[in-house]
Amino acid sequence: MSRYCQVTGARPVYGKSVSHSHKRTNRRWEPNLQRKRYWVPSLGRTVTLTVSAKGIKTIDKKGIEAVVADMRRRGERL
């Protein structure tokens, strides 16, 4: 499973860690991903989504029906 949010599309961001001596090493910032189950009345079943914390807030604000419709329009697999 790749590390991305199915709702917002958030993916890892790459950059450098800079030490006190200013030595630079590679690092990456991972999105805060959670696996959540939602009941979708229009589908008549639950769907399990990998969503970021921001994605959970988006679902709370818009509703799961609107988010699922948006995901289907993009071609995201449920």
Shape: elongated
Strands ordered across the widest β-sheet: 1-2
Would you count the extended β strands for me?
Answer: 4
Percent helix range: 25-40%
Query: What's the number of helices?
Result: 2
Mean pLDDT: 95
What keyword list fits this structure?
ribonucleoprotein, 78 residues, 36% strand, two-stranded antiparallel ribbon, alpha+beta, elongated, Ribosomal_bL28_sf
What would your notes on this structure say?
- This protein is of the alpha+beta class.
- It is built from two helices and four strands; from the N terminus they run ββββαα.
- Strands 1-2 form a two-stranded antiparallel sheet.
- 13% of the residues are buried.
Sequence-ordered SSE layout with sheet pairings:
Blueprint: E1 13-18, E2 24-29, E3 33-40, E4 45-52, H1 53-62, H2 64-74
Antiparallel strand pairs: 1-2, 3-4
